[in-house]
Amino acid sequence: MARESDGPLPKVSNPLSTPVWAGGYFLPMDFSIPESLAPKLEAARTFLREEIIPVEPDMLGSSDFYAVEPKLNELRVAVKAQGLWLPQGPTDVGGLGLSVLEHGLMSEVLGYSPLGHYVFGCQAPDAGNLEILHQYGSKEQKERWLGPLASGEIRSCFSMTEPDTPGSNPTELACAAVKDGDDYVINGHKWFTTGADGAAFAIVMAVTNPEAPKHGRASQIIVPTDTPGFELVRNIPVMGHAGSGWASHAELRYENCRVPHKNLLGGEGAGFLIAQERLGPGRIHHCMRWLGICERAFDLMCQRATSRKIDGDKPLASKQTIRNWIAESRAEINAARLAVLDAAWRIDRVGFAQARVEISLIKFHVADVMMRVVDRAIQTHGALGITSDTVLSFFYVHERGARIYDGPDEVHKASVARRILRAYEEKAT
Question: Where are the domains of the chain?
Fold first, then answer.
């Protein structure tokens, strides 16, 4: 709708290509669930509640992924049998080929459990690496890595963040890959490389063109983890939990790690571009997963409020503070969900570049909503909430990083404000 001071809406040949903030109006949205997707969502929801959630206690107390991996592999077989495997994956590698919006809806369902995405084959970082290999991989790279990754036979990791350079700005990477004959020789120090423990290969961001403009300095290179010079230093303890296997974040060193030129993904200097294409849709998936976490925490909060007795025989829900938390949480979750669907809808129709504002908005907003809802749920449970007897403490420990990884909140807020103000400045001149 038009603002009073702006007069009639501007006429544009393609409204979808007009940035919302510059145009001064909101585009009509259609978030209806496709008929073909609805039964898949319901089947996934049922499988998660009946098969996956009962397995959670085996992992929550110890954070030992390997202890529960055999059971999870059995569940993966069952997911494949139901035709629900790899929802975000292209159909030519055995996936469902869902759009960004459709996979966002699926991700919300699977996010209800910390194990949901892994069991359905759409866990980070493998989901993003699969997209990179599918779009930029050579025929040989796809045969060696993409097929086994898509089928769940192997895992991978994405090695970009460094301890000594700002993770919010990948143009400042120090890790270098220098040409030597037909090889690259990689030297660098990385950390928070999710799932490196047990991964078959890493996709490494390294500087190959140091004299190029900053956005063209880095490349992405496949490094098998059994390559001499690849060292997994440790799984980094996150609030006391180092984790293992896929559920871990590793510190890595590359010391004269030699791989052939044919392991380059895309072209030299394309690392930043590929990373941005990977992170855009990935943030949608993260945000919808966080909404799944919100729904789980909300359910637990309401169940506790109605079942816990205080002051003799009164339910905890009789307290006004609890009722406020429930009302505020429901409103915040609903609003956050619409914002995420809006961003996903735009990506599907106008592409990542035209949805940068919406993607940054949801990245910091949904992460903040999630932490508030989880915190309220823990407070409602009292001492029980900080134990591993519920999933809440796991969410609190492992999801606090949501406000840091894929760009800290402050960076996204600055980016959003800059883009919004730019439209107004152009209009004023």
Answer: 38-151, 156-271, 273-428
